[in-house]
Amino acid sequence: TKELCAVIKLKKQNKMLVGGYRDGLRLFNPETKKWDTCKDNKNVLGNYKLRVRYMKEMEDGNIYMSTETQNLVRYNYVTGEFTFFPQFQNVSGTSRYFCFDSLYLWLATDDGLIQVSAATMKIIKIWSADNGLSNNVIYAVVPDNNGHIWVSSNEGLVMIDYTTGVCKKFTEDDGLQGMEFNTASCYKDKE
Question: What is the reported pTM?
Fold first, then answer.
């Protein structure tokens, strides 16, 4: 896979799923050191250049992927089935990062932060510069242990209290090393 962007170790197979720009998705077997194609029942990888930026395998075995061309994509590597979410693509074609908390899916996009019901996959709210973010290019999103959502952008960090709608911006004046972060720029410690 050329221009590698994301790698995860699969939980149900001794393989790594590798996402990139040009070849979409490939499997790598570390024991044989050989590459293999992914199961793909409907030739999705032949029809779409996914440009995977971040991915995570969930407990149910599905892999969610942030892509630069189709926003969020769900892939089941056992069945070879891909699921697209046009409701998110209508907001932004690009998803750079995502996270789930107990209630919501949060999508970091080039057109704001999409807050989604995790149960129904329906959009609850689109957070943008119009309602408190530093700008609309969101690189990563992480929930903290106090009920807030943190986002990194190319104009600093923002802490969102989504129950009140209050956004607190952090800049170099608050001690940041710089204003621009990049895709998947986030960290959450255990505390």
Answer: 0.92
